[in-house]
Amino acid sequence: MRADVQWKLRWESELELAEHVELAEFFRKTYGPTGAFNAKPFEGSQSWAGARPELRAITYDAHGVAAHMGLLRRFIKVGTTDQLVAELGLYGVRPDLEGLGIGHSIQAMLPVLRELAVPFAFGTVRPALQKHIERFGRNCPVTVVSEIRVRSTLPHARTDLPPTRVEDPLVIILPVGRPISDWPAGTTIDRNGPEL
């Protein structure tokens, strides 16, 4: 049975403090089961972990925030090519609603992506989420690529860690304004900033 939900698209500057508090609690509860470290960035009223989104697709139901996806336009470097993308991240579904199909927030984002006239949407996920992303891709033409190294800066400077990290996630590419054949070749992606 599908939950009764309502999608809202919110620009970051429109969010009130109470909404950030509610989103931070949602992320602590959603990311916490994957490890305390994953919930830590959302202490207090901080509703972002790395780069701050400019637009959010937020799903609400009778119990509050049900799902979330953030968007940030940026240039990434794919191989040697600078590529404009809408990075999608801060993805989450409340644990009690997983499997009901409401997490497919990309459907709520598609009209906005087209309006923003970005050539591609881009995101990364842990390899453990591959089956979920494949289901997600049934309704839109996403391409999932592995064996690409992704470099990001850390969101907060620390003296005990290097300023960047390199990971091997699954890379998700969604053609928006250009065909997937126009995606630049390369085995490395540099975000030139922190992950969304």
Automatic annotation (TrEMBL):
InterPro entries: NodA, Nodulation_prot_NodA_CS. PROSITE patterns: NODA. Its EC number is 2.3.1.-. It is an enzyme of class 2 (transferase). This is Nodulation protein A. N-acyltransferase required for nodulation. Acts in the production of a small, heat-stable compound (Nod) that stimulates mitosis in various plant protoplasts. It is found in: Cytoplasm. NCBIfam families: nodulat_NodA, PRK00756.1. Keywords: Acyltransferase, Cytoplasm, Nodulation, Transferase. One of its GO terms (cellular component) is cytosol. GO terms for molecular function: acyltransferase activity. Belongs to the NodA family.
